[in-house]
Design a protein that fits this description.
- By secondary structure, the chain is of the alpha/beta class.
- The chain has a single domain, classed as Metal-dependent hydrolases (TIM Barrel), CATH 3.20.20.140.
- It has 16 helices and 8 strands.
- An 8-stranded parallel beta sheet has the order 1-2-3-4-5-6-7-8.
- Helix 4 packs parallel to helix 6 and helix 7 runs parallel beside helix 8.
- The N and C termini lie close together (10 Å).
- Bound molecules: zinc ion.
- The site of zinc ion has 6 residues, from strand 1.
- Zinc ion binds next to strand 1.
Length: 338
Amino acid sequence: MRDLTTLPKTHLHLHFTGSMRPSTLAELATDAGIRLPPALLDGQALRVPAGERGWFRFQRLYDAARAVVRTEAAMRRIVREAAEDDAAEGSRRLEIQVDPTSYAPFVGGLTPALEIVLDEARAASRTTGVEVGVVVAASRTRHPLDARTLARLAVRHSGDGPGEVIGFGLSNDERRGDTSEFAPAFTIARQAGLASLPHGGELLGPDHVRSVLTHLGPTRLGHGVRLADDLALLEKVSEAGIALELAPASNVALGVYPTAADVPLRTLHEAGARIALSADDPLLFVSRLTDQYRIAREDHGMDDAAVAELARGSVRASLAAESSKRHWLAEIDAWLAS
Ligand SMILES: [Zn+2]
């Protein structure tokens, strides 16, 4: 069996705070004089009995982790380490999403908060060889006007190169907010050429995906795993070229499916879904990028050819230049031929 760490791949769904190494979280908490919930430090986080999982626990721990990020240095460190960790896992491109709102008060506003992330993404692209693009993500729990402000900020920093804003997202609890009210923000982003990268179809099912399709015009869906409940809709999504950023470890940690083997990865794969496996929030799910490919192999019995096809899917679904994609696809062929 081939080494999944050296399988070339991309990483298209990773949150800024959720990417943090546990050791970094602990150090930043000490520096900031903040006491963390023990669950964040015991290496278990959301690896708890099924009844204790779910969004509430996740949000509480996520907020606690985010609270330690209070300096420019901390923000730069998170981006740098995310790129380094991706490089160590065979990732060729990282599309990291950040909502600058939470960090803005500590660094002088929304614009500096985003510019710090972008500047470090540029530097990390150079030093690690991983292309790092940035997705600005609004939150469903805030007012839709805040999303418009973020969309305008994203547009001002948009571009195709490393360390530029490549897309606009919508994150947080899918059950919060009215999807249609975020449509104007996505219109601002899409009209300026940014990809539309909202979450959808993880906690909620096909009806939620329909609403996201109608109002936000997604380029890809964050998750979309619940399309397994409606294969006719999945077919429409796939025909429209919309890929799913699947994060099996997240689905289990949030209680959407009881175990990794229950995540309908094979159903989606065999139904022709465009899939990009991603870690989402490795800090909380205690499961990194390569672990998602390990789940495909070990829990879903996928052989190396099938796993390589998942990696190809991640490359095709990325927002990288076509020349880069061709190069990485050839590297995947070489991995499979080795
Ligand atoms: Zn996510």
